[in-house]
Amino acid sequence: MFNESQIYSLHQKYSHGKYREELLDLVWTHSLIVKEISLQIAHNLKSKYQINLDSDLLTAGALIHDLGFYKCFDDDFNKTEKYILHSQFGYELCHQENIPENLARFCLVHNGIGIYPNIPITLEEEIVTYADCFHSKSYPNYKTLVDIKKMLVIYRPSDSIIIDRLKNKFGLPDLIKLKRKYGQWHLKTNKWLKSIKQK
Ligand SMILES: [Fe+2]
């Protein structure tokens, strides 16, 4: 399985443009947060139901899921592609990099809450997809279940049933420690994003 530093190198390779370092930091830190939420869910499944997940695959999947992000923007960080395409772009980059299909799929299936056409198959894929809903990159912050549902209702009201189903399956993540750990990072990153969007 690809390890953390190998996946970080891929992010370094594909981040680009005048905000290369900042975008790398944005996507990578979001990915670390999604990883921590995913591992927390895996831990709960293990202690409650003795379900064993592949934690290396889960970790790698969480870290790689947004690799296609960089391809949606030009070198000045203007959006050039519909953001929904970042899934497909990430999947294609994985193939270019000879990443095994079971890892590449995390890019493909994590969009939205994992609704068709590319739905999660494994529990690991489903957990990363669910964990990703609890943290946003656009102005980085955490999302509650209520926030997630509000957003889903805008696009397709029936999707809120799916998030309820996932909540019943995986529970709600405990975000308190994460909020403390990445508090400064959120302040710094949001300040930077605001400053470049005002230009
Ligand atoms: Fe994400």
TrEMBL record:
Record SUPFAM superfamilies: HD-domain/PDEase-like
Domain HD span(s) in chain numbering: 27-135
Name recorded for this polypeptide: HD domain-containing protein
Source organism (scientific name): Candidatus Shapirobacteria bacterium GW2011_GWE1_38_10
